Amino acid sequence: MQPSAARQRVALLLPLSGGNGALGHAMLNAAQMALFEQQDPRVEFIPRDTRGTAAGAAAAARDAIAEGAVILVGPLTAGETGAVAQVARGAGVPVLAFTSDETLGGDGVWVGGLGPAQVGRRLVQAAGAGRLGVIASDDEFGRRLVAAIRAGRPAAPPAVVTMRGDAAAAANALAQQGPFDAIVIGLAGLPARLVAQALPAAGLAQGVRVFGTQLWHDDTQLAQEPALMGAQYPGPDSGARQGFDNRFRTAFGERPPRLAGVAYDAAALAARGARGGGRALPVGEAFQGADGPIRLLPGGELARGMAILEIRRGEAVLREAAPIPGAAGS
To answer: In this structure, are 192 and 312 located in the same domain?
Structure first.
């Protein structure tokens, strides 16, 4: 009788205790669901608690690598990812992190969260070639979003206003640089609603397409805002996400948090990479993820194909299907 082959170990670095403990356990469930659906006995997941700290994440990574982990899935935050990256690179072990901080990707680390650079590129595609205005937040997200939009429109750079508290002032400042065919509101929550309400008085509503970001997707109040009826934003593929939510609910009896989908995607990609007996991730191949099509790019980005959703009568409906992501910058 031939002995069974040793299983390849993939470590799941998650905050299983502390303030994010509940989220960590939901993400663990999503990762285990990804492995169960692949039904591959050659791969074993070993969960390790990061305790939600950079020191805890680094210690979890060292322990997992010492126990034979060939790929690390996680950790959750940018600070934890930076600490894990140092450990993993020294051991030649790839990392599929959950953070959306795109600056951490590369040299064996892939960023699984959806960051502003990808969102900005998708908005450039959706807005088209007309005159574009942007009202952005005065933070790191806003700056990276603007940088991505500018990079995507080198021949027709957008007019940009940074909002610093006064929505009417921001709308009026943008109007002075108009007219526009489309406007991106790079804000979320109440600031996004206030800007949308200020656009008509500034003369920026008639015939202008309004876009938001992926941060709008789970905000039910934005969907009820009359000034945002007809506005569009990039978001998950509704069919893919509904299927993931239904499978998770059937398995665990509750609706998964948004980040559970990121854990599912990273775990599925890690399992595919580990099953060959090595540490080579499936870079360049396209797969169906929890929120739509995904593809690992060589530079450390997990590219996501985002749908374009439109707000109509208090709900978001599909306007453009999520494309399969291609090469970097697509």
So the answer is: yes
- Name the more confident of 313 and 162: 162
CB 209 within 8 A of CB 283: no
Q: Are residues 91 and 136 in the same domain?
A: no
Residue 58 lies inside a defined structural domain of this protein: yes
In this structure, the answer to whether residues 254 and 223 fall within a common structural domain is no
The number of folded domains in the chain is 2
Measure the CA–CA gap between 196 and 250, rounded to whole angstroms: 39
Predicted TM-score (pTM) of the model is 0.92
pLDDT tens digits along 253-274: 999 999 999 999 999 999 999 9
> What is the arithmetic mean of pLDDT over 6-29?
96
Which domain range does residue 97 map to? 8-113+239-304
Dist. CA 75–CA 168, nearest whole Å: 40
Q: How far apart are CA 248 and CA 75, in angstroms?
A: 21
Pair (311, 190) in one structural domain: yes
Q: Which residues contact 117 (CB under 8 A, 6 or more apart)?
A: 102, 144, 145, 147, 148
Same domain, 195 and 315: yes
Quick check: 72 and 84 in contact, CB under 8 A?
A: yes
Tokens of 4: 């069974």
Please, are residues 202 and 133 in contact by the beta-carbon 8 Å criterion?
no
Residues 144 and 94 in one domain: no
In the chain, where do the E strands start and end?
A: 8-14, 43-49, 69-73, 95-97, 109-111, 132-137, 159-163, 182-186, 209-211, 232-235, 286-289, 292-296, 302-304, 307-312, 315-320
